[in-house]
Design goal:
The complex is a heterodimer of chains A (92) and B (443). By secondary structure, chain A is of the alpha+beta class. Chain A has 2 helices and 5 strands, in the order βαβββαβ. With 443 residues, chain B is of the alpha/beta class. Chain B contains 17 helices and 12 strands. In chain B, helix 3 runs antiparallel to helix 4, helix 5 packs across helix 6 and helix 5 packs across helix 7. Classes of the chains: A alpha+beta (92), B alpha/beta (443).
Chain lengths: 92, 443
């Protein structure tokens, strides 16, 4: 079972505890908000990650089990490229 | 070559309207002023088709039809509409349908045009979607500043209630006119009595939205297309457009053209034909911004052969988004305009997420410094670093859109930015501003 780290950016108030407790995965940006350098958490780091999540005063750090992506996620869909262009007529 | 225009103006004179075999579709029968009544609407498009399911619990045939049509969402993200419909239809609880006509993009007028002039086409789509996903209510979200849209939709809901039985309840909801208010979770938050601001996901709206019910949120134009697909079928829909982006699209064209406004084009139509349909350019066009203020600039040299579909725009890193096409004339300074938009984008941050709140402000400050000729030598590097710091670090896509806009502006107008950084404001910096920044900004 692999886990991943996620930050709730709305809840996060830049206390910085997470970077103290999990420096292997979390750095701080110039305003003190966490930068996740790698979101994967294997067994060796799981305890540290959970400790960091529990220490967050706003519970903004999440250690989640990896789940399959669900439909409906708001990502930009790119249409596959295609060779032929449609006939275009310029109006009179 | 036949004389079939691929473009239709919302304000075009009636004789043009009926000359075209293929277009208009959405804008068919549109009146110069005021909404189309229910009777007129039925006369133009025919009555709402009756749905026939093989078994009571079988999937609505409309979902398969929309899937075969290849309809993509027209709110900007271009997500396949059938996938959304299916996800909500398969949920166990009874769903809610939300029509998104919040249109927070300052340069977009298409949702307003639809609501003001063709309310029944939009409501048809809402009703069909509700039927397809088994929802009992439809909520129509319209920007509170769009008076005519609010009035027209309210009247249309009343007309329909008098005509038909209680198949579906329709309710009009005014939403605040800020940029992020039209984001899906912001709408849900607003409809649940909270502020119209994005929330942390999951849950996504299709899982748990309005009153924790599975919620289908579709852009007004998407639903208007669905209303036509239900009547004419997927094959008809695919007769226009490109394989990857079938059908027609509403485009809001603004900038130096004789007649800016909302036009219906076939996906893949040329930018040149769109400008021609709008009465031609009134000044030399320096660049075009596609997809609004989260979008991408394309400059001069490519403009004459630009085709408006996502597959043709992909090499430029651009997409049509919600159909905003903004032309910038030679009379405007792209650096000053970009700095103004960057500052506006920073102001439109909901202020909920630290990286967005701090990062967009820092970005705007740096872009302004370059425009004013007072930036440090490493300002471009600072912008590159800041854009990486905001990307994907907000609860919604607003910081990513700001990154797109600023990065694209710096690349497209690299020479102009370098000149401003060295010599300060140019003579066109003082010219009248061209890019509209309030939703009332363009005609």
């Amino acid at each position: 079972m692999s886990h991943r780290l996620r930050v709730n950016p709305i809840a996060c108030e830049a206390h910085g505890m997470c970077a103290e407790l999990l420096p292997e995965r979390i750095a701080l940006d110039e305003w003190g908000y966490p930068l996740i350098t790698d979101d994967s958490i294997d067994r060796s780091l799981l305890d540290h990650a959970r400790r960091a999540a529990q220490a967050c005063p706003t519970f903004a750090l999440l250690v989640e089990r990896r789940v399959e992506a669900k439909p409906g996620r708001s990502s930009v869909k790119r249409a596959p490229p295609s060779g032929d262009s449609p006939a275009v007529t310029i109006p009179p | 070559m036949s004389s079939s225009p691929t473009l239709m103006s919302a304000e075009a004179p009636p004789e043009v309207l009926y000359e075209t075999p293929a277009l208009p579709r959405i804008l068919e029968g549109i009146r110069p002023h005021g909404p189309m009544s229910l009777d007129e609407h039925v006369e133009v498009h025919g009555a709402l088709p009756v749905e026939r399911r093989r078994r009571r619990r079988a999937e609505s045939p409309l979902i398969g039809e929309v899937e075969r049509a290849g309809l993509l969402g027209r709110g900007g993200a271009g997500f396949p509409t059938a996938t959304k419909l299916r996800a909500v239809a398969e949920a166990r609880r009874q769903a809610v349908v939300v029509i998104n006509a919040a249109e927070g993009e300052p340069a977009s007028r298409k949702d307003r045009t639809l609501c003001e002039s063709l309310p029944h086409l939009v409501l048809d789509g809402g009703q069909l979607a509700a039927r397809a996903v088994g929802a009992g209510e439809v909520m129509v979200c319209v920007c509170e500043s769009a008076r005519a849209s609010l009035e027209s939709i309210a009247l249309a809901i009343e007309q329909r209630a008098r005509m038909s039985g209680p198949e579906v309840r329709m309710q009009l909801v005014a939403v605040p006119g800020r940029y992020v208010a039209g984001q899906e979770n912001a709408l849900v938050n607003h409809l649940n009595g909270g502020p119209a601001l994005p929330t942390f996901t999951p849950p996504m709206a299709f899982e748990q939205g309005v009153r924790r019910r599975p919620t289908l949120i579709n852009n007004a134009e998407t639903l208007a297309h669905m209303a036509l697909i239900a009547r004419h079928g997927s094959e008809w829909f695919r007769q226009l457009g490109t394989p990857g982006q079938p059908g027609s699209a509403l485009i809001t064209l603004s900038g130096p053209v004789a007649d800016p406004g909302v036009y219906e084009i076939e996906h893949g139509a040329s930018l040149a034909s769109l400008i021609d349909a709008a009465g031609g350019a009134t000044a030399r066009v320096r660049a075009v911004l596609l997809g609004g203020y989260g979008g991408t600039w394309i400059a001069g040299g490519h403009l004459h052969r630009l085709l408006l579909s996502d597959e043709h725009l992909e090499p430029y890193g651009a997409s049509l988004g919600a159909g905003v096409v903004l032309l910038l004339s030679e009379h405007a300074c792209p650096v000053a305009e970009s700095a103004r938009v960057a500052r506006w984008l920073a102001g439109e941050s909901a202020g909920q997420c630290g990286p967005c709140l701090n990062g967009l402000d820092a970005l705007a400050t740096t872009v302004e410094a370059i425009a004013g000729g007072v930036a440090e030598a490493d300002a471009p590097q600072r912008i590159a670093r800041l854009t990486k710091l905001v990307r994907r670090r907000g609860a919604c896509g607003h910081p990513d859109g700001a990154d797109n806009f600023i990065t694209s502006a710096m690349e497209t107008f690299a020479a102009e930015f370098a000149e401003h950084a060295r010599y300060g404001p140019c003579e066109t910096c003082a010219a009248p501003r061209e890019l509209p920044l309030s939703t009332q900004g363009i005609a």
